[in-house]
């Protein structure tokens, strides 16, 4: 079951410039965003654990996202 509501995902696509968005397009982006969010969260948890913390911070999330984007860009 999806975690993200479809309406905000639709609004994100429209905010990017689309005048019309199919339900399938919003659903596809929702699936992708959820997969990315889970991967960023897993990486952030590893960072918090490495720092011997139980609490994941905003800095953990930001660093995890940067690391994963770098991996995607450079194919690491």
List the helices and strands and how they pair.
Blueprint: H1 6-15, H2 23-50, H3 58-74
Quick recap:
By secondary structure, this protein is an all-alpha fold.
Your description of this structure?
- The protein is an all-alpha fold and 76 residues long.
- It has one domain: Histone, subunit A (Orthogonal Bundle).
- It contains three helices and no strands.
- It has helices spanning 6-15, 23-50, 58-74.
- The mean pLDDT is 96.
Question: And the CATH topology?
Answer: Histone, subunit A
Helical region count?
3
CATH architecture descriptor text = Orthogonal Bundle
Q: End-to-end span in angstroms?
A: 31 Å
Broad CATH class: Mainly Alpha
Q: What is the radius of gyration computed over CA atoms, rounded to a whole number of angstroms?
A: 15 Å
Number of domains: 1
Order of helices and strands: HHH
> Which residues form runs of ≥5 with pLDDT under 50?
none
Structural class label:
mainly alpha
- What name goes with the CATH superfamily? Histone, subunit A
Work out the number of β strands.
0
Portion of residues within helices? over 70%
Roughly what fraction of the amino acids lie in strands? under 5%
Mean pLDDT: 96
Shape: elongated
Question: What labels describe this entry?
Answer:
elongated, Histone, subunit A, 76 residues
């Amino acid at each position: 079951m999806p975690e993200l509501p479809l309406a905000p995902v639709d609004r994100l696509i429209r905010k990017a410039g689309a005048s019309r968005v199919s339900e399938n397009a919003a659903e596809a982006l929702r699936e992708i965003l959820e997969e990315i969010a889970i991967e960023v969260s897993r990486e952030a948890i590893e960072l918090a654990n490495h720092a011997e913390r139980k609490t994941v911070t905003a800095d953990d999330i930001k660093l995890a996202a940067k690391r994963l984007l770098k991996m995607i860009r450079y194919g690491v």
